[in-house]
Amino acid sequence: xxxxxxxxxxxxxxxxxxxxxxxxxxxxxxxxxxxxxxxxxxxxxxxxxxxxxxxxxxxxxxxxxxxxxxxxxxxxxxxxxxxxxxxxxxxxxxxxxxxxxxxxxxxxxxxxxxxx
Length: 116
Description:
Elements: E1 22-23, H1 24-31, H2 35-43, E2 50-51, E3 57-59, H3 61-75, H4 80-115
Antiparallel strand pairs: 1-3, 2-3
């Protein structure tokens, strides 16, 4: 069943990974970390939380997954700045691999078309 005009406090954002649904306190609680940790990874520009009308930080599920990865690295002894850089590089590598795979598919498709 598809809902065209969802109602309620989230207004259809329940499946939106980028919707800033979590306050800083709730995000820290969910991650089992401190609000200071979230501030630190924000200062390192790993994630940039959106701000509510009152100026409070709000985090999305996607941002919480990134923060969880940072916490995992920090818990293993990686300095927070290095953990943030590692995650950024991992993300860049994943994007480069995705683009490379697209180019390969396009090249294979062009080869197949040219051969017929």
